[in-house]
TrEMBL record:
Keywords: Aminotransferase, Pyridoxal phosphate, Transferase. PANTHER family: FI04487P. The lineage of its organism: Bacteria, Pseudomonadati, Pseudomonadota, Gammaproteobacteria, Alteromonadales. GO terms for cellular component: cytoplasm. Residues 25-371 form the Aminotransferase class I/classII large domain. Its cofactor is pyridoxal 5'-phosphate. The keyword Transferase applies. It is an enzyme of class 2 (transferase). Its EC number is 2.6.1.88. This is Methionine aminotransferase.
Length: 379
């Protein structure tokens, strides 16, 4: 059979977690929290299932959850959205990204993405018959050259995908970035897919820009978030997309034939969680900033150069002073010989630069972070 995605193999996250398990290494590779989901969330999940809420939810989501998401958006971004027509609950941010891309990409369309880019964007664009146009960001600051973006836009360009706070670089878009982005979207009449799954995880006073904050940007945007990151439940695969009515309508046409609807008891449990324990979200940034500091401090005696993490639960390390291996070989060495699993940065690029950088996930218990750092300090 002729492959539709001939250049793809198993995702790096599955590969590295597989290796971490095989070699019993400390797994700081795939991004997922080591902590359990909040008690209330687990209790309510069981409760609603026992109450018999086990059949299909409405395709766009359970009304209670849509309402709670709208309340959160109003509280955090001072933006009032109509929950029924703008918010669609999805099976993780991955589904939302896939659906948004399918909904807007015609055969031959170009979609601009910034490398290093989260791994699901490009295959989703290609499955829609589109072409991913890569803008490469350079270490250590990974800042966007908007002049370069402007030059990459032509009559085939349909959309730009941004991700802030950014996986894997842990950088946050600045107010200046947002102004440049807005100018380009308006000038060239483009759509925006804004991947904001780490919206609650920002450090050192960095302010998260949400496309929900600006009416002109929102009018042409799909804003995507994930409950997995915020409530330590990545295995539930629950997320959502917020869009203006006309775009939400197109999104829903695709969503109804990808999954139709998402897990009903989880939707009801998440609605209760948002209603009763919204403080969890307000405390998340401090919680992860402490984790980041623990790891950064524990690595102080090492030969790694630590790059600044402004948000997300990731940290980049430059190992140029330690080894000449390329980053994939270095990660294999780390997992097999040192006992720590990490992700090589090059896999997030179409044309990888010659950097020697790896990504660590610090959504782990203090003991895990200290043990991993201890091993890394010996290199
Ligand atoms: N976008 C980014 C940038 C991510 O890091 C992730 C997951 N790590 C996702 C999307 C997918 O989120 P979900 O697990 O909810 O599908
Ligand atoms: N997004 C997570 C990461 O960056 C992994 C998600 C996945 O395993 N597909 O590590």
């Amino acid at each position: 059979m002729k492959s539709k995605l001939p250049n793809l193999s198993t995702s790096i996250f599955s590969q590295m977690t597989g290796l971490a398990n095989r070699y019993q290494a400390i797994n700081l590779s795939q991004g997922f929290p080591e902590f359990d989901a909040p008690e209330l969330l687990k209790k309510q999940l069981a409760h609603y299932s026992e109450q018999g809420c086990n059949q299909y939810a409405p395709s766009s989501g359970v009304a209670e959850l849509q309402a709670q998401i709208a309340a959160l958006i109003e509280r955090k971004y001072e933006h009032v959205v109509d929950p029924a027509s703008s918010i669609t609950v999805t099976s993780g941010a991955t589904e939302a990204l896939f659906v948004a891309i399918q909904a807007i990409t015609q055969v031959g369309d170009e979609v601009i993405i910034f490398d290093p880019a989260y791994d699901s964007y490009k295959p989703a664009i290609e499955l829609a018959g589109g072409k991913a146009v890569h803008i490469t960001l350079r270490s250590p600051n990974f800042r966007i050259d908007w002049q370069q973006v402007n030059l990459a836009i032509n009559e085939k360009t349909r959309a730009i995908i941004i991700n802030t706070p950014h996986n894997p670089t842990a950088k946050i878009m600045t107010a200046q970035d947002v102004a440049m982005l807005k100018a380009l979207l308006v000038k060239h009449d483009l759509l925006l897919i804004s991947d904001e799954v780490y919206e609650h995880i920002t450090f050192d006073g960095h302010i998260h820009f949400s496309a929900l904050k600006d009416k002109d940007i929102f009018s042409r945007s799909f804003i995507i978030s994930s409950f997995g990151k915020t409530f330590h439940c990545t295995g539930w695969k629950m997320g959502y997309c917020v869009a203006p009515h006309d775009l939400a309508e197109e999104f829903r046409k695709v969503h109804q034939y990808v999954t139709f609807s998402s897990f009903t008891p989880a939707q009801l449990a998440l609605a209760d969680m948002l209603k009763e324990q919204s403080a969890h979200l307000d405390e998340l940034a401090d919680f992860y900033q402490q984790k980041r500091n623990i790891l950064v401090n524990a690595l102080k005696g090492s030969r790694f150069e630590v790059l600044t993490s402004e948000g997300t639960y990731f940290l980049l390390l430059d190992y140029s002073a330690i080894s000449d291996l390329n980053d994939i070989a270095f990660c294999e060495y780390l997992v097999k010989e040192v006992g720590v699993a990490a992700i090589p940065l090059s896999v997030f690029y179409d044309s990888p630069p010659e950097d020697r950088i790896i990504r660590l996930c610090f959504a782990k218990h203090t003991e895990t972070l200290i043990n991993a750092a201890h091993k890394l300090c010996e290199l």
